[in-house]
Specification:
The complex is a heterodimer of chains A (346) and B (553).
Chain A lengths: L3 E7 L5 E2 L6 E2 L4 E8 L3 E4 L11 H4 L7 E2 L4 E4 L5 E3 L4 E7 L4 E14 L4 E7 L2 E7 L1 E4 L2 E4 L1 E8 L7 E2 L12 E3 L3 E2 L1 H9 L4 E7 L1 H17 L7 E8 L6 H9 L4 E5 L4 E4 L7 E3 L7 E4 L8 E7 L4 E2 L5 E2 L1 E6 L4 E5 L3 E5 L5
Parallel strand pairs in A: 15-17, 16-18, 17-19, 19-20
Antiparallel strand pairs in A: 1-12, 2-4, 3-11, 4-10, 5-10, 6-9, 7-8, 9-10, 11-12, 13-22, 14-20, 15-21, 21-22, 23-30, 24-25, 24-30, 25-28, 26-27, 28-29
Helix pairs in contact in A: 2-3
Chain B lengths: L14 E7 L3 E10 L2 E11 L4 H13 L10 H7 L2 E5 L5 E7 L5 H11 L2 E8 L6 H10 L4 E6 L7 H14 L6 E5 L4 H5 L7 E3 L13 H15 L8 H16 L3 E6 L4 E6 L5 E6 L7 H4 L3 H7 L7 H13 L8 H19 L10 E5 L1 H4 L4 H12 L3 E7 L5 H4 L7 H7 L1 H4 L1 E8 L8 E8 L6 E7 L3 E4 L6 E8 L13 E7 L4 E5 L11 H16 L11
Parallel strand pairs in B: 1-4, 5-6, 5-7, 7-8, 8-9, 10-13, 13-14, 15-21
Antiparallel strand pairs in B: 1-2, 2-3, 10-11, 11-12, 14-15, 16-17, 16-19, 18-21, 19-20
Classes of the chains: A mainly beta (346), B alpha/beta (553).
């Protein structure tokens, strides 16, 4: 898709916005500030007031959920004596058992970055709606945070596997386009090298799972920094990116892009229109197949079959004959193929 | 379909269109009046993204083969002008965050109620989840939800921990419009309510009022109403899970039967049980369909591979399950992919039917959704239902092959019985019946069944050993009386533990299944042995039914 599309940037709870509706934002721009909760501290309340723990509710001036600033009064007894909050934080719980208040101090102010370029069109509860000028690609899978960076092509052909050895410091901060697959080792190395994100045709579920497990362990050990996103364009397994799309991505090398893994989206700024996909292809159109054994392979739909045709699975379906690039002819359910529409044809 | 007595220039027909728009596939049924009776005239199913125009073209093309030639040129307009009854899968699931004292007691009961009501639990924090308070708070702050669910504490003694969890939710929620449901200790209600602004909190009966009691009915009902209000405020009758429940309840009422139905879709899975009084209750799992995270979570692929009769590499199963989730509108292309999908379906049906009660005394079990109702062979549909649901006792099986049952449930209260009644003969495709036992000693006889059919020689007694399954011929519409003699500790459920049971059944496209494989299914540990057993079951249910040698034991 090209032109403008609306994208919703989710804002963590507690974010104070630093931008306004109508403002133009850059991918690296700070759109808000947020102070995350830290390990809560227990603040004695009834003891300093010389009352019983069970009287806690009677003396409290705040309740769980309330934000408090440092030195704010949090409790007061009938005689006017007060207890003040030792920190700026969020009241998490009031413990009538020991007469204390649990307050989660707020950590240092951290910037919230949108990773998207565009104009802010609206503000929703916990989200910003941004009009994004540029091409948008939607994948079939993805994971990780929103990231941005220049697009970089990491393989020579769309069916090539992205190898760990091919990832070096030149890819730091970039969104790297791999080919048909990347191993857990390649993904781990990419992250370690500071690659912002990776776009792949396919990936083995096992490799992705292994990579995510490694990241979790590193996170628990406190050794994980920076964000990283993965976008899957075609499917799971070793699946080539279709050559036309790969060709278009190659033309965008060096341009700024935003990858939102969890939403399976890639935005490319200052780019022409990408080849698009359309369900229910017509005879003569270039198509891509989505199921094994032809997953990711492209060809031309040469005919529609008059009657429903049973696939080898035995499922009868409306089908068409596809001539693949290697000359092989195969009947495929129309539900399993999509037309590849060049920008000039759409 | 046409009134032949009318002159050609005014030739017309009475048509109605029933459409079920699923998240991946749309099913449409065209019904027309023919010789005074309403019959199915055309059916189509296609990926939802193909759109309405293509659906109309497909129906018109089908109808063209059988319609009166005088109507041929006007079929498209006749179909598009026909009264249309639509239903659809909810456009998006409701998202809820759960905070409870314990994962296994209050958290489990609350989660089950929320999921059964159609919510997706996007985050669950419990006091025993091993996280720090700050981590729990961060987790709750980072989710985007439509509502919050708080649970914990028995009614008799407070459960102060629930107050801490309520405080966490109050801190994480930080204002806004999202409602909070309190389903914890009644003794704490006032103190929990004090944490939120007026009108935010709604108290519901505690699903775990004491250690030995769990009753989540009130919570589930409240959450059902809440999801309808928040996610589908324009009305729920057009929602597929609601339509199916209404249709199944009416079928049960009209037939004086206990009817169960399962609808396995791409995203949603729905489980309905309706009693002869026409009361239907449902479990709607918004993430219980073939794109379920259950299949793609660690261990999911292994469980599916474990249940397959063919040896498929677990990594390939995992990729296939992910692709199923990524492209739910596509179809299994190879036999291997189909085996994986059917394995996944059996697993999901088992999860769906496992609502804490043994499923016995069901008179009719209906399978809906493309995977089951449009399986390549009726035997495959029967096996998915039998192996997944494991209904104890004597049960009739049918599939909603036309996909008309759900949209008919979107009719008004006063029309639904008429709608179902008009299509009575065409509505469901009967698969046959099954006798399913529980228990029995391995290798020993579990039941002996004698089949009496009017005008046919008696068959049997057919001896079925524990662990065996056998298919007997019983054609569509053919009635039979069964004498069932139980042995070796096998049971058919029900209040009486009689060793001799009589039952009447009606045949279908598969026949009569005598199933002594126990509940749940018991499989050998060794992979080769397990696959051999699974293959023998698959072959038994997949081949054409035949009388046993000698006609009996």
């Amino acid at each position: 898709m090209n032109g403008a599309s609306l994208h919703r940037i989710r804002l963590p709870r507690g974010t104070t916005l630093t931008v306004e509706v109508g403002a133009q934002i850059r991918p690296d721009e700070v759109i808000g500030l947020r102070r995350g909760p830290m390990l809560p501290i227990r603040v004695p309340v009834t003891a300093p007031l010389h009352c019983r723990p069970s009287d806690l509710d009677a003396v409290l001036l705040v309740r769980p959920g309330s934000p408090v600033a440092e030195d704010d009064p949090i409790a007061r007894d009938a005689g006017g004596r007060e207890v003040h909050s030792p920190v700026t934080g969020l009241v998490v719980a009031a413990m009538a058992v020991d007469g204390t208040l649990l307050i989660a101090p707020l950590g240092p102010e951290e910037p919230v970055i949108g990773h998207i370029r565009g104009r802010i069109r609206g503000l929703e509860e916990h989200a910003l709606v941004v009009e994004v000028p540029g091409a948008r690609l939607r994948g079939v899978g993805g994971s990780g945070d929103a990231v941005h960076g220049e697009l970089m092509i990491g393989v020579r052909s769309p069916d090539e596997e992205l190898r760990a050895a091919a990832i070096d410091s030149a890819a730091t901060g970039k969104i790297l386009v791999g080919g048909s697959r990347a191993s857990a080792e390649a993904l781990t190395r990419a992250r370690a090298m500071g690659v912002a994100g990776i776009v792949l045709g396919g990936v083995l579920d096992k490799e992705l799972r292994d990579f995510e497990a490694i990241q979790r362990r590193r996170q628990q050990a406190g050794g994980l920094t920076g964000s990283f996103g993965i976008l899957l364009l075609e499917g799971f397994g070793k699946v080539s990116i279709d050559p036309q799309l790969f060709g278009w991505l190659t033309e965008q090398h060096g341009k700024m892009a935003s990858l939102v893994g969890a939403e399976r989206l890639l935005y490319l700024y200052d780019s022409g229109r990408p080849p698009m996909r359309r369900a229910l292809p017509k005879v003569g159109e270039w198509v891509v197949a989505h199921r094994r054994p032809f997953q990711g392979r492209t060809g031309v739909l040469v005919a529609l079959l008059d009657e429903t045709h049973a696939a080898p699975s035995g499922i009868p379906a409306r089908s068409g004959l596809v001539r693949f690039e290697d000359g092989r002819l195969a009947p495929l359910p129309l539900a399993n193929i999509e037309a590849i529409v060049r920008p000039s044809e759409s | 379909m046409i009134d032949a007595a009318r002159p050609a220039e005014v030739a017309t027909t009475e048509l109605s269109l029933l459409v079920d728009v699923g998240s991946a596939w749309t099913k449409a049924t065209l019904v027309g009046r023919s010789r005074g009776r309403w019959r199915l005239a055309a059916q189509a199913a296609q990926p939802t993204e193909w759109g309405d125009d293509e659906l109309m073209r497909t129906l018109a093309a089908q109808l063209a083969g059988t319609a009166d030639p005088r109507l041929t040129s006007r079929l498209a307009s006749l179909i598009s002008d026909a009264p249309r009854i639509d239903c659809h899968t909810p456009t998006r699931p409701g998202r809820i965050a759960l905070a409870a004292i314990s994962a296994e007691v209050s958290g489990r009961a609350a989660r089950r109620a929320a999921e059964a009501a159609g919510w997706v639990v996007v985050e669950a924090v419990t006091a025993d989840d091993g996280r720090t308070v700050a981590e729990r708070l961060s987790a709750l702050q980072s989710v985007e939800v439509d509502a919050w669910l708080l649970a914990g504490g028995f009614d008799a003694h407070g459960g102060e921990g629930a107050l801490e969890m309520a405080g966490l939710v109050a801190a994480a929620r930080g204002g806004g419009r999202s409602p909070v449901v309190w389903a914890g200790s009644a003794a704490l209600t006032e103190r929990v309510a004090a944490l939120f602004d007026r009108g935010v909190l709604r108290q519901v009966a505690n699903p775990r009022p004491s250690a030995g009691r769990e009753d989540a009915t009130s919570l589930r009902r409240h959450l059902e109403a809440l999801i309808e209000r928040l996610v589908e405020p324009t009305g729920v009758r057009g929602l597929a899970p609601v339509g199916l429940r209404r249709s199944v309840a009416e079928l049960a009422r009209a037939g004086g039967l206990r009817v169960a139905a399962v609808d396995l879709g791409a995203r949603y899975a729905t489980w309905i049980v309706a009693d002869p009084a026409g009361h239907g209750r449902s479990r709607v799992l918004a993430a219980g369909g073939l794109a379920s995270p259950l299949l793609t979570a660690p261990g999911g692929a292994s469980r599916v591979a474990h249940s397959m009769a063919v040896a498929v590499d677990e990594l390939a199963v995992a990729d296939a399950l992910q692709n199923l989730r990524a492209r739910p509108g596509s179809l299994p292309q190879t036999e291997e992919e189909l085996a994986i999908v059917h394995g996944a379906a059996r697993l999901l049906l088992g999860e769906l039917a496992a609502d804490g009660t043994t499923l016995d005394g069901i008179d009719l079990l209906i399978g809906a959704g493309r995977t089951v109702a449009a399986a390549p062979t009726p035997g495959q549909a029967m096996q998915m239902l039998l192996d997944g649901v494991r209904p104890l006792g004597v049960t009739q099986f049918a599939i909603d092959a036309a996909g008309a049952l759900t949209p008919l449930g979107a009719l008004g209260d006063d029309e639904i019985a008429e709608g179902l009644g008009m299509l009575r003969d065409d509505l469901l495709t009967p698969l046959g019946a099954a006798v399913v036992t529980r228990g029995g000693r391995s290798g020993q006889p579990a039941m002996r069944v004698t089949v009496h059919r009017t005008g046919w020689p008696t068959v049997g007694p057919v001896e079925i050993r524990a662990g065996q399954v056998q298919l007997l011929p019983l054609g569509r519409g053919q009635a039979a009386d069964l004498d069932i003699e139980l042995d070796g500790g096998a049971t058919l459920g029900g209040p009486r533990r009689s060793r001799r049971v009589r039952a009447s059944v009606i045949g279908g496209t598969v026949g009569l299944v005598l199933d002594a494989r126990d509940i749940p299914l018991v499989l050998p540990r060794r992979a080769d042995d397990r696959r051999a057993v699974l293959a023998s079951w698959r072959d038994t249910l997949g081949r054409e039914a035949a009388l046993p040698p000698g006609g009996g034991a």
